Amino acid sequence: MKSIILDERQFGTHEECGIFGIISEEKQELARDVYYGLFALQHRGQESAGIAVSYDEDKVAYYKNMGLVNAVFHEEELRLLPSTNVAIGHVRYSTMGSSNVVNAQPIVFYGRFGRMAVAHNGNIINAPNIKKRMIYKGHIFQSSTDSEVLAAAINDYSTESVEQGIYDACKNFVGAFALLVLSGNKLYAVRDRNGLKPLIMGQKDGNIVFASESCALDAIDAEVIRDVMPGEIITVNTDGSYTSRYFAPPDKRPCIFEYVYLARSDSVLDGTSVYESRYNCGKILAEMCNIDADIVAGVPDSALVSARGYSDVSGIPYVDALSKNRYIGRTFIQPSQSMRENSVKIKLTAFRNNIQGKRLILLDDSIVRGTTSKKIISLLRKNGATEVHMVVASPIVKWPCYFGVDMDTKEQLIGGYRDAEEICKLIGADSLHYLPLEKLAECCGCGNFCTGCFDANYAVDLGNFHSEKLLFE
Ligand code: SF4
Question: Ligand 1 pocket by C-beta < 6 Å: which residues?
Fold first, then answer.
């Protein structure tokens, strides 16, 4: 059985951040619920983890460090966090700001209304401008993250109340943000006006819970109430009562890449099951492609569901072709180029007995840089596959993302300047087939999505935020 070593950062695209928050009437060990919630959101960020809890009315205790949730938090750390009415947590994958503990979240600070903590998922694309203005006014910053800018701006605008501060600050943010803010005995949940990042609300035994994905509500046996709406601020009190207001008219354009790759298959985003979306992508691809082959397989984990859909419609048997080793020891993943090339690795192994002498259809969720696909195809051939036909459950990724998904420049993308035929040659496949964008949108619930990385049709008008990174043709 042959195997290959893959860099985690090349293994598909990457996770973003995950956030989780809970508020209760009685003081409870809420840090434990947050721990389990973050554990369920681990796929969204593996660099750092943190939990903040309020206590004594206006104090905040917190712990954050680099590493996976279960490496950062043990009994000892959880016991240090007092029983509380409000707790929030964060797992991080950095797309803005470097990967070190100063940039780990939640961000905890002294604000106009006492101690506060903020957990953020997304990218504020006008953060550099806001930061410049604030530094000029005398603010100081400790980290290089847009999340600290966001926290400082909320505080700056909080002249009457924290809620007012969130309302006014959010009106000025351009980009993607799902936010949880802890202040005193209140929990605030916010989603940007396009709803680019997911945020769902649930309840468990009268406690109100928020999470990036529904799988984290399931992890603590919480029931779904509803999604936080684009442009909405929800303010929750400890008795479970809550109010809602909008800082901007909603213009719902959630990130379609959440369905393709980022979210967990067992999550439901904005009412649409990620599993069903991926399964339907596989079904449609089977109807579209007429490939003569012996077996169908998927690249773990997100493409396995699509492979099942393909197999069910085509009648070509589904097999396991690749195994991803989940138990390779690692501390944390740093996103620097040197780490990409040299360090944290993930081992992928082929099931030789399943594929030897077979013509294989391989489903993947997307091809971003192409390096992983090339290595996988070569691995499958070395293990005896006679043909490898690559079938991708999304269109060609042609454009960068500015909203927190790690696809920085057109040059990094194998499809940035190439068509399917050229990509097919580069990755060494026998044939290559992509799912058209309109079919993908159909599978994801037919909504109005951000599809910027596929067709430059971004949810946010980037006109005023061009930089050297924005390489439009
Ligand atoms: S550009 Fe792509 S990855 Fe980024 S938010 Fe839009 S759809 Fe998602």
Answer: 196, 255-257, 401, 403, 405, 450-453, 458
